[in-house]
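[agent] plan:
  1. take the single chain provided in the ticket
  2. run structure prediction with default settings
  3. attach structure tokens to the ticket
  4. add a short note for the reviewer (M.T.)
[agent] executing step 1
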Amino acid sequence: MNHKIFICDNSIEGIFSGVFEAWKEARTIGHSHCKLETRMPQFASENDGYQLLGVGENMTGGDYRNFELFSEYVEVEADEEKARKVTKAVCDRLGFLTYQGICKTIAAEDKEIIGKRKNATDYDKGDAVYRTIVCGFSMQNGEEVLTNLGNPYVARVFELARRVDNEIGHWREFLRFKELKNGILFAKIGPLNNILPMLMPHFTDRLPLEDFMIYDDRRELFAIHKSMRGMNGQKTGWVIVRGKKLAEDELSDYSDSEVYYEELFTAFCHSITIEERRNKRLQQQMLPLKFRNYMVEFE
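[agent] step 2 finished; step 3 output follows
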């Protein structure tokens, strides 16, 4: 029997919509004949380390991939209602921690979905998520599905979720806010994975009385939080904005106190340095180079 391959967006709504459609089709042809593949991120390029395969545009709207023979490709549009149903089913039957792990997996930029796979276990993350959910639903206690690392798809989900978790922890430590003249706190990051929505709850909890904004310059995403001041103590939310260009002039106009403390902090970092004990290799292990472009002490 031919495989049916569902092509979905590289997002939570897209992949969950793909899971919904694949599960519905599997009632007829079985889960083993259904497969999910995610579209290439729009910002991907060869300069980002992606190996683009194929020439020209094809049925997936400009996506590049190697097609499988005797397989039917089905385009799946992201649907909020379908994604909501899958979310509820996963939370009810597999638990909230499993749902969080799956969301982190989806946030991972899985380069193997576009380029050449490194080895047989580098499955497309969409397919890994789908088969992990299938595996969990077949278990007596679905909440233990992510411990079933003997399943290669579950192992792939676990690997990607751990990768995202590690990067979230790093950016919580290395992210630097700067105060603009209008009083807004601004920070710029460049994470490998799409972790901005997972960073915001942490900083919203830490800075409830501040207006702040975090910009992901890799994906051109803004996360904006409004202060609770003047809101009678009511908790305010945050939003993600896409498609807006970074106004470099406005966002480099820092307050006088920001300039003063930047100079003070930079002088402090230099003053405590002991040249004879400088160890660049150890420094790079503790603070990788990829974070330094976003840290004031290295500007």
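[agent] step 4 note for reviewer: The longest strand covers residues 3-8.
[agent] ticket updated
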